[in-house]
Amino acid sequence: MRISPTAVLVVVVFAVLLFGAKRLPDAARSLGRALRVLRAEVRAPHPDASATRQAPPSAEPAAMTIKAAPGDPGPARPVAAAEPDPASRG
């Protein structure tokens, strides 16, 4: 993507009008610092992200809930996760 000199001139004139000639260097410095901080944050791994991705799965199976069908008046009841029958392995 190529930027024409006219576009650069329009941006500079707009920046001078918006910030004023005296405050323009400070605004440019602040923008540069903000971009550096943003780049550093994007490149560095977040300490919480690695902990959540590498968390071991729970050893206990989660309890499942069976909900009543629309015509069934019975309440929902918790059901333990199915475990394999030791006698069927042999």
UniProtKB/TrEMBL annotation:
Annotated keywords: Cell membrane, Membrane, Protein transport, Translocation, Transmembrane, Transmembrane helix, Transport
Chain positions covered by the region annotation Disordered: 42-90
Main localization of the protein described in the UniProt heading: membrane
Family the UniProt entry places it in: Belongs to the TatA/E family.
Pfam families: TatA_B_E
Species in which this protein is naturally found: Kitasatospora paranensis
Domain of life: Bacteria
UniProt topology in membrane: Single-pass membrane protein
Entry keyword annotation includes Nucleotide-binding: no
Record bears the keyword Membrane: yes
Protein name, per record: Sec-independent protein translocase protein TatA
Subunit structure: The Tat system comprises two distinct complexes: a TatABC complex, containing multiple copies of TatA, TatB and TatC subunits, and a separate TatA complex, containing only TatA subunits. Substrates initially bind to the TatABC complex, which probably triggers association of the separate TatA complex to form the active translocon.
Cellular compartments annotated: Cell membrane; Membrane
Protein's job: Part of the twin-arginine translocation (Tat) system that transports large folded proteins containing a characteristic twin-arginine motif in their signal peptide across membranes. TatA could form the protein-conducting channel of the Tat system.
